[in-house]
Design brief:
globular; 39% helix
């Protein structure tokens, strides 16, 4: 009989330890950023970021200072990026005075160029190869940053943009 109660006690202790361990890991994860990511960037100047477009031009976020910028981080393997591609293309065509940039991350040149050939974004796109996107705090694509004309990041949106969401953010940064 004593042996049976020890097993139950041991079983309870193991499950209790597992539950406690999971809660501790969750609490740690919520209070510590992913390694390599920057702290919140809203309200701060946009970090330096350059990429080579698929047609060979070099583009930097800094060269657009003086105009609002929508900076979208995407990848060819990202399903939600496929969903938002037409939304961003439409936004770039209709948002007057706003520059759009598409920065592929965590991707290879061939698949990224095939993605761009398929969706033909009407704005500069290319691959960021130096990891500088981590200064924005990007965790995974798609992530979109809305930068005002002074070069200050005003908003960050994680996940695929819908037309109404894009319009809302554009209204906040566009003159």
């Amino acid at each position: 009989m004593v042996r049976s109660s020890k097993l139950r006690l041991a079983g309870w202790s193991v499950s209790g330890l597992l539950a406690g361990g999971l809660l501790a890991m969750l609490a740690w994860g919520l209070t510590h950023p992913v390694l390599g990511t920057a702290p919140a960037v809203a309200g701060k100047p946009a970090p330096a970021l350059s990429f080579e477009t698929f047609d060979g031009a070099t583009v930097s976020v800094a060269q657009f200072k003086g105009k609002p910028v929508v900076l979208n981080f995407w990848a060819s393997w990202c399903g939600p990026c496929v969903t938002e591609a037409p939304v961003l293309a439409e936004g770039a065509r209709t948002a007057i005075g706003v520059s759009f940039l598409g920065a592929a991350i965590q991707d290879a040149a061939g698949p990224a160029q095939a993605f761009e050939s398929k969706y033909r974004q009407p704005y500069p796109t290319g691959i960021v190869t130096d990891g500088s996107y981590l200064r924005y705090g990007v965790v995974a694509p798609p992530e979109t940053y809305f930068i005002d004309s002074a070069g200050i990041i005003r908003y960050r949106f994680s996940g695929p943009l819908e037309r109404s969401t894009l319009r809302l953010y554009l209204a906040k940064i566009a003159p």
